[in-house]
TrEMBL record:
Keyword set includes Methyltransferase: yes
Localization of this protein: Cytoplasm
PROSITE patterns in the cross-refs: ZF_GRF
Protein name in UniProt: GRF-type domain-containing protein
InterPro entries assigned: Mlase_EEF1AKMT1/ZCCHC4, ZCCHC4, Znf_GRF
The GRF-type domain, residue ranges: 1-39
Chain segments annotated as coiled-coil in the UniProt record: none
Protein source organism: Ilyodon furcidens (goldbreast splitfin)
Keywords tagged on the record: Cytoplasm, Metal-binding, Methyltransferase, S-adenosyl-L-methionine, Transferase, Zinc, Zinc-finger
Amino acid sequence: PTLLFEKIGKRGNNGRRYYACSACRDRKDCSFFQWEDEKVSEATMLAREAEMQSKRPGFTEQEYYNRFLKFSSLPHNEKKFCENCQILLLPAEHSAHSAHRTTGVTAAQLRRPSTLLRPLENKKCNAQYLFTDRSAHFLLDTLAGLGYRKVLCLGTPRLQELIRLRNVEQKHEPMQSLLLDIDLR
């Protein structure tokens, strides 16, 4: 996804519009740049497609879901998380990650997976809000107190997790929520 920007000349005139990445504000992180009025060559299109393919996650959304279902059904002692790769490991993958730092995974961590993941560090590309429990509970209680029943969580996975957990407990009026986040994990 891109946004349309305008580059203004030094005297404030002769602006030229261009498209650049909507998530990253630094060209080192995402080199996409396209003048609005410039025709895109076939070679450029192929190069961009190849770059996008190289940055895709290792699994599709369905494959991640199937892996999660398999992982959830494992005995407690076989549930491992690779901290280096930031992925839940199935038993057949344990040996391939033996040189990595792995930890066991509890049922509580599976309900709140953001507690397993380390924060992404690039603030120009990854605006993440990994609230403390106290802050997330305050936000959730405030939203509920104001009567909100639909919540859009932008880069706030811990708030999303609490909303889902609260709905499962069925002690409060249910809330619908959607998490939008560019973190592939």
